[in-house]
Protein 1
Amino acid sequence: MNSYILTLVISILIPLSLFGEQTKMYKHNLMPVPSKIEFGNDKYRIDSTFIIKISPKNISELNSYATRVLRRLSDRTGLFFVQDFLTEKSNEKSGNLTITATRKGNVVVGEDESYTLSINQKGIQLDAATDLGAFRGLETFLQLLEVDEKGYYFPEVKIEDSPRFKWRGLMIDVSRHFMPIDMIKRNIDGMAAVKMNVLHFHLSDDQGFRVECKSLPKLHELGSDGLYFTHEQIKEIIKYANERGIRVMPEFDIPGHSTSWLTAYPELASAPGPYTIERNWGVFDPTFNPILEETYDFFDKFFKEMSELFNDDYLHIGGDENNGKQWNQNQDIQKFMKENGIKDNHELQSYFNKRLLNILTKYNKKMVGWDEIFQPDMPNNIVIQSWRGQKSLVESAQKGYQGILSNGYYIDLIQSAEFHYLNDPIPSDTPLTPEEQKFILGGETTMWAELVTNETVDSRIWPRTAAIAERFWSNGKIRDVEDMYRRLDRVSFQLEELGLRHNSNYEPMLRRLTNNQDISSLKILTDVIEPVKIYTRHRQGKKYTQQSPYTRIVDAARPESMTARKFNHLVDSFIKENNEEGRLTLREMMLQWVDNHDKLKVIASKSYIIREVLPMSSNLRDLAQTGLQVLDGKMNGRKFSEEWKIEKNKLIEMSKIPYGQTELALINGFEKLFKSVNE
Amino acid sequence: MNSYILTLVISILIPLSLFGEQTKMYKHNLMPVPSKIEFGNDKYRIDSTFIIKISPKNISELNSYATRVLRRLSDRTGLFFVQDFLTEKSNEKSGNLTITATRKGNVVVGEDESYTLSINQKGIQLDAATDLGAFRGLETFLQLLEVDEKGYYFPEVKIEDSPRFKWRGLMIDVSRHFMPIDMIKRNIDGMAAVKMNVLHFHLSDDQGFRVECKSLPKLHELGSDGLYFTHEQIKEIIKYANERGIRVMPEFDIPGHSTSWLTAYPELASAPGPYTIERNWGVFDPTFNPILEETYDFFDKFFKEMSELFNDDYLHIGGDENNGKQWNQNQDIQKFMKENGIKDNHELQSYFNKRLLNILTKYNKKMVGWDEIFQPDMPNNIVIQSWRGQKSLVESAQKGYQGILSNGYYIDLIQSAEFHYLNDPIPSDTPLTPEEQKFILGGETTMWAELVTNETVDSRIWPRTAAIAERFWSNGKIRDVEDMYRRLDRVSFQLEELGLRHNSNYEPMLRRLTNNQDISSLKILTDVIEPVKIYTRHRQGKKYTQQSPYTRIVDAARPESMTARKFNHLVDSFIKENNEEGRLTLREMMLQWVDNHDKLKVIASKSYIIREVLPMSSNLRDLAQTGLQVLDGKMNGRKFSEEWKIEKNKLIEMSKIPYGQTELALINGFEKLFKSVNE
């Protein structure tokens, strides 16, 4: 085991030890970090004669994947490769990159995704048990591309790699705000790039039912505002995902979260209708009636159709946040509960779930649900997705239920990559035994869509999801946060080539906000602010609905300000070391912020929409002015009075007030800097 | 007529004359310019209580269009409108914007698209004969939005508007490079924003057959690499376009340009197969065999299906660039021609076209084709699309054929907006009589897709197509180029809100080119270069194919450098006026270019792909250094020697050499500046 652990420890900062001396350290850009990795000193150079050879040639998905990789390599390097398409009929005698896969893999939980990748002067060799493993290896291959004055090359390396968890998912909510198929596809590409393998498709909720249902057509006709995926589109998405080794698991959230369903079929609700599609955000009353046989006839028909449409073994029935109000108020339901010895709404939902389980089982689907479906009397062939926390996940694993962790991976809550990255489905201090740990299948990051649109959603998913993907794939001991951020910047850039717009939509949004004026001053401010966190945004006087504008500064602002992160770090080391270089860099940043407010005011005079953040901009100016006093004072040995300290403390507190649902992300740094004059 | 002409003259620079004094001039941002427009002094302010009211309420397309306009207004202003959806059931008592349409329009050639828009302190009134007219008026309405320190408002105005031409098209080629449905939709939105009304869908060519054909499935199965639109997707596109008052006319290019068809059905070719999908660009030999009855059976089946799938009255059969080689070499065809008195290949193609015309007529479609289908013996119920030029358009109009101009609107050829803008389907010196002019239906801009991908195509279409759209819509006397560019900058910005990526893909492309380094130095260079023009790019040693990388600097560079245009203008006025302000601005620009080369060299050392333009970057530095000499010399009264002049002339000539298929767009300005020292 020692050598294995050694590999893990050194995998972040790799000594060039494969064949040469350990003279310099090589920092790789791989994310997720492979299980074993060893670099050498050689470079394998490529030019337009670069050829890929695959054996066997009859796995069409692998041929297509390799062809796309060839195009991506061509797009990055500008090399006009002679090779065009890889097909069954390709007859390359040899390849610069040789790929072997033992067999065609199945896109199912637990399929072999391991691969080995070896690069030396002779060429590049990628070997995998299945095409899925080859897909993962090809993404590693692309991340290894380097460039110097002579051209493009791959470093000498030996990699052995396989995933830690078999379930590595991204949940996309297309109910609250519908997302076009293009958004789903580009995010599938992003998932493949960081080796994720489950698209959890949240297809229904109070605010919209998003799949064509041929047997119950009122669902999409009345429940979707015309915004839904047809059968053909769903098949297209599944094919697209499967060809990248990614499963597509549908979620139909019941018995609560179902206003859109009950808009179409009010007779199945637990209280009299009519219902209309919900436009607001929150938890709502409409709930299916669990005591009607018609309800189960309905779901039999429904799940029959959906089980045929979706090819995955698993089907998610939601089950969360049923508030029970309609059940409590329905006399027939209360009577039914008494007659059948059902003690409370939890037990009643368990009754409902067991009936559904029978239906799903009949159609060969395994049931997945949120925490709430975990009831003592449920059979343990269901899978629990934990949004409530580690505790409930541990409990269900101890009771023999398979589980997936999502608590801590709610990327809609605008938390830092670090926070998500350090959250582990099986933390090192887990109370679970090794046997129990096997019940933890992995994790899923969740993109709830109340506050995002097609324009902003990529910026909420990426790049933070790449850090989470590493948590799901790489060894749990890989936890160097600084190195994660370094690699995340690189992978974020690379994700752009797949059409993801987490970076590229930023400036167009600022352009709209300035009404096509010079965006530089707005960008300087927006670069150092973040949207308010967790659920705060709903609690600041703005009532958000499905139709609200999601085009304000809070929507343009990144979930995590990298400029603020850099600033806060610089302050830390400046306080510690009082270093001249740090002082100069901080000074430059602060001078820019001092100057910025007047410039932004001019822009705001011709763009009313940005006025809401002007008070914050002026706070930033004041903080930066004070920061400059501290920098100078420290150099000149100035004594700062108690009055000064009290006043600046007030400034810090005042600057913590959010404006336009955003907050300054560098308060922490300024606060430390101001306090450091005491020392 | 006088007042009408007056309106035209003043429409670019509008005196505020409606009710108030003519104290200041109001420059509007409308593109295309309406037929009649008169501004007043009042402002109509809007807030979150803004309501749209429509009558009648039963035109669902109009309800949807107005709802989208409401969202766009909300997105721009950040206002949380109370109104959510406009539907048949909406019961607004009054509206801030009241829309009336007399009847539901038909999306056909010549439908009434006129509207009147009146804004004053009482409110906003939009009246149209049809919903199509209301769509056009709503786009004008959105372009009128203004902002001041108090918020958002619309200026007082009276507009009467209707189009000059009834056929205002954009042709998109999805054969050479396939484009996803998302690209088609966002471009349809762009078209609607500038009041265009025909999407000409170039669906087949040598390099790909792009529609599912159920009756002849080998077409899409073998002719498309799997990249084609299904029936469902075609219907989705037609619905999307029609809902915006835009027709969708399909083009199936035959009998030449048909390699992809003949890959699937080689037995219909004029020479023995097999064929494979063409990967190269150019004119190729494969041509349908016009003497086989099977050919017409095939097309009968084909056009029956396509006539049902596409709802437009018109169907385009291409007909261009049949090189005749296969016909010349086929003994049976030669024999057939002799026996039937067919003199040459033109007549043979005419025979083919007449047979097709019978088929199209049977299926209620009118035939459209490129110039080549115009033969003396063709019936004159066909429509000629002129790619060859004004002359052939005039000829066919004189002979009573309806025509559409595309010559001069080939946006793939990287010419200036000015060039396209001044090109008129019926120029003021037209030899056509007013009666003959009626045969000119309008024009179409053509986006041939050899050298574009989904990433770059928007930047080739927009914003230049907006200037062409004005040519098709507005009075022919509107020809102020400077004012066109001013408004084009505005409309280009507004087009971004529809998801068009002509601006937003620029920096991501530079980011990839720099390999995620600081892009500023590459941007300074790329901002002043343009891709080589017309067909030059194919003739500079690079062999482009369907699989080439289209990610180089030439692909990132804009078709028209606005920075270079500004520079060239500044030089003109500086030479004329020797003004200090001009001198200082030019000096600042040149200093930046002098400094830039060393910075770019550093970037290029870590990104090999950009090295191809380094010689041009060094030329730019040398030009700018010389430019500074001239600026200083003119101030100091320096005499420039003949040697200096000869040397600088050489520098100009050397700087005209393209690198990486791009050229410096400011040579003209530098040349004039250097020559000005003689005077």
Protein 2
Amino acid sequence: MSPDTPHKPDRLGTIQPAYVRPLDLKRGRVDLTHGAGGRASHQLIDSVFRPAFAPTWPSGWQDGGDDGAVLPDLPAVPGSATGGKLVMATDAHVVSPLFFPGGDIGSLAVHGTVNDLAMMGARPLHLSVSFILEEGLPLSDLLRVVQSMARAAREAEVAIVTGDTKVVERGKADGLYISTTGLGQCRPGVRLSGRLAQAGDAILLSGCVGDHGAAILSQREGLRFEAPIESDSAALHGLVAHMLDTGAALRVLRDPTRGGLATTLNEIAVASGVGMQIEESAIPLNPTVAAACEFMGLDPLYMANEGKLIAICASEDAERLLSAMRAHPLGREACLIGQVTPGPAGQVRMRTAFGGQRMLDWLMGDPLPRIC
Amino acid sequence: MSPDTPHKPDRLGTIQPAYVRPLDLKRGRVDLTHGAGGRASHQLIDSVFRPAFAPTWPSGWQDGGDDGAVLPDLPAVPGSATGGKLVMATDAHVVSPLFFPGGDIGSLAVHGTVNDLAMMGARPLHLSVSFILEEGLPLSDLLRVVQSMARAAREAEVAIVTGDTKVVERGKADGLYISTTGLGQCRPGVRLSGRLAQAGDAILLSGCVGDHGAAILSQREGLRFEAPIESDSAALHGLVAHMLDTGAALRVLRDPTRGGLATTLNEIAVASGVGMQIEESAIPLNPTVAAACEFMGLDPLYMANEGKLIAICASEDAERLLSAMRAHPLGREACLIGQVTPGPAGQVRMRTAFGGQRMLDWLMGDPLPRIC
């Protein structure tokens, strides 16, 4: 995408460049890119889901396009007190293979939804889980997944409180799929959204990128590297609580999952109507992951992470926030990777290690289907 | 099951008769009965899910084995007020075919979760939705499903506030699967659970049984009957609100979905440790559904319903509650179908139309996979 490609921001804040053709809702079909978290996924949301579901929203309630929904206040009843907005988030998990270095579909299903709540500044409280099982799935595999979920939930101090199970015939699923939904509660006064980045803000990253994607892919392809590559899958709400404790002027938190760091930065740039300037040399990268990505011809900036976050804050608070992040086990490698710029709106530019400028576009296509 | 089969109620209230073999968690495999809502489904929950997830629950919190989870109170913060317990419920939907007389997977996914909340006495407020789409799904089908969901949500006055989409390769799903999770709020003071039925209570049914199962099956088999058979899929919370307005001593509300009326009555009998005496002649049945079931060799008492409820209340309130139900469009055919008895615990007996006694056991096997 050249910087002068014409853009037309739509009513809902998404910019589809001119070369993206509208979805053919009459004759088109779902393809794997619709699940990849890139432009096609957003196009599907904007063309199909949002127009249908927006009329169901309470009047005055606004969809933030974020990882979860901040719910309207519950009707007040005298004599009963609570505080802090409720947040709801959901994730389907179809990762293949079911078990991989550093985790499995069960721990991932807990971390994925816990992190969606955490990115909203919410303390995760309750999870529901819905299983779609394939006839013939070994019960021992199911048990292993379920015990892994339970362990992840206990570690994250969330309760799995309700669930449902369906079974489909052999060949109609791939082992099992898990959807988790989380309910969390914000600290009173905390407001985070991808729409709140401001020119001049600092862009922080909690650690190295690409580990989850590289772990899944090397497992899938049977590749072995000198050092083992493990998924970074982890629950981030502890790190977030630590960050909120600083009182820093945090505007945006996002976990760069499908589509990776590059796509998530683009999402924020579009939602906030700002530009971004990133320094490639500042982005931490595990050397084995870097080597694996080079070998596989993939860009780690577009690979999924499951235990990393992007934080955007007022520049004067960046150092304080970085220190707090580095003091937490999940933020030890945290660093400043760039700045929010006034424009061009929706564009993320990166100064490469060689000093040139590169446009960081959204993920296109789906190089890694079923990464989460 | 003979009335003198030995029973061993386990810690969690489920009775597995002696002839049910324990799950072989080392070498066993998932089969379709695990998704059918009968004994095998319960066995899977008791052997795999509950033991794993119970350690994640807050101390003092008890799983009611109900359609949703009543959540512990949120931490109180002065100055902010709310009231009524929050309830969370989730359902996976894998119905095949996707479109059927009287509904589709989209409307069903809304009604299913709305009804789970309603059965807990909660007013449904918010839904999340997670889609698993098969590569190659016509977008026009997806749009039709999504618009149907939106229509059902608007009619039920619930907001679809957040969602997620994953895509799997051709052959790894069957068109699409939808998991919905709902958040609702109970009226202050309302407490309903399958554990609360008492000897002497009246058992009410809101209308005829088997319509949903018969509609799906005849669509699947390409059968045609004199009168069209339509699914009864509908949101029941309006009917429930109407019932709660009476102030009747309601103990249990349940929607007899998978496994049908017979299985749901058994679940309640086990959970409450009571017996039940049902009158076959009192159970309303659509004549075309009766004929279709006879033709297909299926028992309508075991067929899924998606817009009916069982209510158990103090016998002195039964008439008042019935009148209220009959005054609502979804309860016009409501009737008294039996009584709760002191024992034998966990057994449901039915006086047949010919005057004999029949044991109504749980659904065994899965005569109708993927009914919802």
